Amino acid sequence: MKREMRLSCRTLLSTLIFAIPVLLISCTEDPDIDPVLNTIQVVDADITSTTAKLKGEIQIVGTKKIIEYGIELSKSQLFTSPVRKSYTTPAAVGTFEADFTGLEPNTIYYYKAYVLINTAHLYSQNALYFTTKN
């Protein structure tokens, strides 16, 4: 019985000696966390027949380097040929806004917040729309 106990303790001890450094290394690595974005609903006062002040929000910056962030605007729900207004200043949690000009009167536009990480664009979960005034 004592021999079995010693063998179990030795096995457990050698396993712990191996496992502790592995655990410490894995605990010090930063996980890859994507930014989390939100597109903010436009208010009537921010829309004219040819302009729009649109807002987005960075809720979580994440661990990846954000190269730029902003708002993407399109006349298509599929965002074909979008227009982007962007910032390259360091991204921080909070709201940001983008002014769009040269819009067509009485036209539906779709917009969403985005970030650029390396060569990939990440978008907010929600895309919204508005209609310019006559």
Question: What would you note in describing this structure?
Answer:
With 134 residues, the protein is α+β, with helices and mostly antiparallel strands. It has 2 domains: 1-30; 36-131, Immunoglobulin-like. The protein is built from 1 helix and 8 strands. Strands 3, 4, 6, 7 and 8 form a 5-stranded antiparallel β-sheet that branches. The protein has a 3-stranded antiparallel β-sheet with strand order 1-2-5, with no helix packed on it. Strand 6 and strand 7 (120-123) form a beta hairpin. The mean pLDDT is 87.
Quick structural summary:
Helix content is 20%, strand content 38%. The protein is α+β, with helices and mostly antiparallel strands. The longest helix has 27 residues.
How large is the radius of gyration? 25 Å
Would you give the CATH topology of the largest domain?
A: Immunoglobulin-like
Q: What is the structural class?
A: alpha+beta
* Extended strand count: 8
Which residue ranges are poorly predicted, with pLDDT under 50 across at least 5 consecutive positions?
none
Terminal-residue CA separation: 91 Å
Tally of separate domains? 2
Write down the CATH class of the largest domain. Answer: Mainly Beta
Largest sheet: 5 strands, antiparallel
How would you name the oligomeric state of the polypeptide chains in this document? single chain
The CATH architecture assignment of the largest domain turns out to be Sandwich
Average of per-residue pLDDT values: 87
The string of secondary-structure elements, in order, is: HEEEEEEEE
Residues in helices, as a percent range:
10-25%
Strand content: 35-45%
CATH superfamily of the largest domain: Immunoglobulins
